Amino acid sequence: MKITITAKKMQIPQNFTDYAEERLGQKLDKFFGDEADAKITMSEYKNQIILELTVFYNQMIYRAEQSAEDKKDALDASIDKIIRQIRKNKTRVEKKLKDNAFKAAFADEVTESNYEVIRHKKFKMYPMDVEEAILQMNLLGHSFFMFANAATGETNVVYKRSDGKYAVLEPSLE
Questions:
Q1: Which end of the chain has fewer beta carbons closer than 10 Å to its terminal beta carbon, N or C?
Q2: 48-57 β-sheet, strand order
Q3: pLDDT tens column, 27-82
Q4: pLDDT for 139-171, tens place per residue?
């Protein structure tokens, strides 16, 4: 597994890098092959370490974000969150993960869940800029809003993040 660690406005000690490589290897190698990419992004906010762990493997993205007072605790909690995501969606992601990953890890567990779609909705999209889309989303009281981006002509989604800031999802086939 290829591991990239990035820190925003803080230093990463070498012992944390070694610890991260060891823990990711111990916990996640059984699910992902050597061609998996793991990205760890850390920042500090009000004496808390905010750690975001993203694993890219076989065209799937697994992501967990955790805050803690200690880097190692945040990393361990993020790894556990990714394992819970995999466990929860076991039958759907089994084909995408490394062969025999589930036989060893979850031999005693059998969980099956169906995603129930309760509504399909169509609406006309008008070209608008990002700020106008955010305004429209807020006026509707939604947490996300799909719109036709006037600058690019592509369909984008704007959403409100848990930190109160906004983000835009743009399509990419790369």
A1: C
A2: 2-8, 37-45, 48-57, 60-68
A3: 888 877 777 889 999 999 888 999 999 888 777 778 889 999 999 999 999 999 98
A4: 777 899 999 999 999 999 999 988 889 999 999
Q: Name the residue among 51, 117, 60, 52 with its Cα closest to residue 86.
A: 60
Residue 23 contacts residue 77 (beta carbons within 8 Å): no
Kindly tell me the sign of the dihedral angle through the C-alpha atoms of 79, 80, 85, 87.
Answer: positive
- Beta-bridged to residue 23, according to DSSP, are none
DSSP codes of every residue in 131-149: HHHHHHHHHHT-SEEEEEE
* CB proximity list for 9: less than 8 A, separation 6 or greater: 43, 44
- Run of H or E including 57: strand 48-57
